[in-house]
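Standup notes, structure subgroup. Blocker cleared on the heme C input:
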Amino acid sequence: MDPRFRAWRGVGTGALALGAVLALSGLPIVAADSVTAKPVTFAKDVAPIFQQKCQECHQPGSIAPMSLITYEDSRPWARSIKDRVTKRQMPPWHIDKTIGVQQFKNDMSLTDEQIDTIVRWVDAGAPLGNPNDMPPAKPLVSDNEWQAVKDGLGQPDLIIKAKPYTMPARHQDVWWRPVTDIPVAEARWVKAVEIRPSSLLGRKIVHHAVAYLVQDNDPDSINRGTTERVGDPRPGAFNNDDLTGRRAQLMEWAIGKGYDLYRPGTGKLLLPGSQLSWDVHIHAVGEEIEDAVEMGLWLYPKGQEPQHRSYLVAFQGMKDRASLDIPPNTISETDGFTVLKQAAILENFQPHMHLRGKAMEVEAILPDGTTEVVSYVGNFNFNWMTNYIYKDEAAPAYPKGTIIHVRAWHDNTTANKSNPDPNQWVGWGDRTVDEMAHAWINVTYISDEEYKAWVDEHKKAPGARAQQ
Ligand code: HEC
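Run returned:
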């Protein structure tokens, strides 16, 4: 078997293996370091972790189903908490910790030690301990101010509001896709961007939001990024040889995300006549709520325009739409290849699949033949369109001619809990019951000289970029 094959079944992160062992034994672990360890209590050990990694979402008025603030709130959920944290489903951070880039701007995951602490707490009967050990309560979210304003960036230069949506008390999830004009009279460069629900109440229903830039009038930013396939009568059939989709996404947002401040010297270009195309995942919570998601934009002052423009590219994980062919009760694997026509820095990884999506890997095949895994998500969950944003210093650069190889796995069996019907054949399509397979990656194109300078600075041998 190809040694690079990483079947989704083998999501063998250290923590996962630990979780599996613990789940099997159902006993307090007897690892060497914990034999001597002091008993774990909620007040002393667990509450600080929940404050740091859970309460942003698990507080009244936020998106999670229950609060994890007090001992009384948390105790009834102990078993479920152990289950979710050992499987690394909660917090929603599903990237493999053993391979590829490991430094992220928005990492919300638990450390192995934190998981170990929570598991030992649950296994010990979830004791409170001494209430005097409780850390001071973390302030709840009580205003809807921009995070960037709180961090000193000043008020946004531009606020763009989506058309409001009224979510009834009870309803299935909605993906709300309005389009809004961007009111700029001349080209302007964006330095930072943030999305928020328009009210505190809206935070209950807005699960996440994505905003794409629509610039049909910009030849450099072809939305679909692909030429039509010659002779193929199907609408939208695309040419495999031209998969350089350049769709300038402005931002993806979920609770806890904050804002995107682009790497110095880099920005998104707004052109007159552009529009924002929204994709907002809204969830009913038992009361009728109206919200209009809005975007704040901080612009570069005129005369200080950045040298580099970044593009959102949909690197396909299939050869063409017809090749996404998922029979009933099977696990399928597809892959796609895209050549970088210019040297580039990859800034993030956001796997995009639907309900059957199970795993996705991005691999770089360098012109000298070496390969390396850039990122791998073995535990994909459609509910959470997590965007893994690399730290500036960890974002890998690749030379012109590098092939970005994306592999996607879909699980159309009963083992996939999100699967609405394993007896259906599934193919490519827009509906959530259809499938897709691409990696959204923000690409900053650089010159060959800049690429050389990057390699010198990072002292990376070809093929060892992502291992940091
Ligand atoms: C980014 C927001 C967010 C963060 C951070 C987060 N959660 Fe959640 N959590 C949710 C949402 C939303 C759900 C319900 C949907 C789902 O299960 O995916 C949930 C579900 C859960 C459940 C399942 C509840 C049930 O119905 O059985 C548990 C347990 C849980 N979270 C524990 C945690 C713990 C422990 C942490 C921190 C270590 C945490 N979560 C961090 C948003 C979050």
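Discussed briefly. The first strand starts at residue 158 and ends at 161.
Next: hand off to the docking folks.
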